[in-house]
Amino acid sequence: MKKRVKSSLLIFITSMMVLFIAACNDSEELQTVKVGEVTRSIFYAPQYVAITQGFFEEEGLNIELSTVAGGDKTMTALLSGGIDIALVGSETSIYVSAQGANDPIKNFAQLTQTDGTFLVAREEIADFSWDMLEGSTFLGQRKGGMPQMAGEFVLKKHGIDPQADLELIQNIDFANISTAFASGTGDFVQLFEPTASVFEEEGIGHIVASFGTESGHLPYTVFMAKDSFLKEDPETIEKFTRALKKAQDFVYEASVSEVAEAIHPYFEDTEVELIATVVERYREQESFAKDPILDEEEWNNLQDIMDEAGELPKRMDYNELVDTTFAEKVLE
């Protein structure tokens, strides 16, 4: 009897050791890729889905994700080698290129295809119209950033001069905009989710319009890397893009509640039900890109919006800063 127990125990221990060694080997085989996101937002749901659902691991990648607040800081991290891939507005690649970078930044996979902000009013408005912003205090986004440029584009589209027809505040750091509004600054504010919905739930403000539906399709948030990285390690970029496409399919094909549960680990302080509401809102207006390809029409729309805002240093050729090679392979 004792021999059987010892034998069974030995088999169990041996099996556990084999599993442990196998797990270690699997972990060692994964290639770590450092990704820096410009902010943490439900707007980036496919990225978190790709991590939590194991799509990156299926491709042999271990994603080391960090949040680098602000487009300028994100690009600094990318240029200095602090991160391998940046998730940020594609306008930043234009700014860097215009300064004469020796190692150009290439946009290789699109994550979102509309503006992700919403117009939040301090008071509840039953029948909102854009002319209600005239004479108001509008708490906007950082000057030169895509949210602010898209916001100004929409205001002008509705006949409002953001520099003359309202008091435009845009000197508050991105991370402090919501806090400023909550403490009483501004009649209207331009906010990302889930903050906009949280404010609505808490009675701090009320969502009255979507900048995403008003500004049209554009490469709002894109994965980009230095040209040298794409050339030196194309296999990694292709694997990364393939995992992203799996996540994009999941976001549109799974139920809203499944998507919310999948990304909840990245928003632990937000209720799953609220996350689901936000996901549904973004999905309905097709803010999440359905594939990783950044097309030329979107690129031109981006530059038109930048030009309208007076922030376009010079017009950049689509083929110079966009590389769809990897996305096209993934879609084959």
Structural description of this entry:
With 332 residues, this protein is of the alpha/beta class. The chain folds into two domains: 32-114 and 218-331, D-Maltodextrin-Binding Protein, domain 2; 118-215, D-Maltodextrin-Binding Protein, domain 2, CATH 3.40.190.10. Helices cover 48% and strands 15% of the residues. The chain contains 16 helices and ten strands. The chain has helices spanning 2-29, 45-52, 55-58, 71-79, 91-98, 146-157, 177-182, 195-202, 211-215, 227-232, 234-253, 256-263, 272-284, 296-308, 318-321, 325-331, and strands at 31-37, 61-67, 85-88, 105-112, 118-121, 137-139, 167-169, 188-191, 206-210, 221-226. The strands form two sheets. It has a five-stranded mixed β-sheet with strand order 2-1-3-10-4, sandwiched between helices. Strand 6, helix 6 (146-157) and strand 7 form a beta-alpha-beta unit. The termini are far apart.
In short:
With 332 residues, the protein is α/β, with parallel strands linked by helices. 48% of the residues lie in helices and 15% in strands.
Write the layout of secondary structure elements.
Elements (H helix, E strand, L loop, with lengths): L1 H28 L1 E7 L7 H8 L2 H4 L2 E7 L3 H9 L5 E4 L2 H8 L6 E8 L5 E4 L15 E3 L6 H12 L9 E3 L7 H6 L5 E4 L3 H8 L3 E5 H5 L5 E6 H6 L1 H20 L2 H8 L8 H13 L11 H13 L9 H4 L3 H7 L1
Parallel strand pairs: 1-2, 1-3, 6-7, 6-8
Antiparallel strand pairs: 3-10, 4-10, 5-8, 5-9
Helix pairs in contact: 2-11, 11-16, 12-13
Protein name: SsuA/THI5-like domain-containing protein
Keywords: Signal
Main location: periplasm
